[in-house]
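User: For my dataset I need records formatted as: sequence, then structure tokens, nothing else. Please produce one.
Assistant:
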Amino acid sequence: MKGPLFYSKILLFGEYGIIKDSKGLSIPYNFFKGALKRDKDLSEMARKSNESLKAFAGYLKNLDKELVSFDMEALEMDIADGMYFDSSIPQGYGIGSSGALVAAIYDRYATDKITVLENLTRDKLLQLKKIFGKMESFFHGKSSGLDPLNSYLSLPILINSQDNIESTSIPSQNTNGKGAVFLLDSGMTGETAPMVQIFMEKMKQEGFRSMVKNQFIKHTDACVEDFLNGNVKSLFGNLKQLSHVVFDHFKPMIPAKFHQLWKQGIETNDYYLKLCGSGGGGYILGFTEDLEKAKKALKDYNLEVVYNF
């Protein structure tokens, strides 16, 4: 039994903002992937995954059948037979490890599934997002459903607002370009739930709310537009602003040892950092107009290039 592969994702823009209806842009990241497998002789990691699937199956049983139903018999039999999710996607890194698993389970066991091959109208995309949100809530407490959607479709997704999403295409990479989007490994995992909790607490303050609306969302939306339209100059202007706003107002989400590097990027313009997912650890996203400069400035870190300008 070897299932199809489901990839990790990167939310380029929109972390936290999409909770409050900002735009967002999420792209598949094929460097990491996972698939459902079965084995009689399970390694320690596979055994843990198998246990987790058992609990997940129990949760899926009780989901609203009107929304989604599964072939529970097949699922439970496969789990009893040693099924696990074999994945290279690091957990707690903000690149959708649970999203890929949710997509794989839906793909194999949902009884009346919306397939990637049909005409994906906005209603179908929203329906999928809703199903995936409910499924992924098992792992996160509350999920937008975007990570599994990205993984399931393997297409870039443009979020215009919470109830308006579409698959989109992004400008082709310029493989000879000097500019790049990269990932920086913080060397520690982040937990989504506590970070979202901090954000929701802060949203109770009038000042924070107006900053989110007038600065954070404004720059996020502008970055999405610039990226999709290939306006690199304007994009970096907006990225600098966005990086600044996050540094000033989202400090708890930035691992402490990166505060100095974050600031240094804004001051030197060699690179700009932003959160990848909810922050607190995992990966940090970086953007640079000159990859060699960024590599020099960040020489103690391993940069994974995701996209070239």
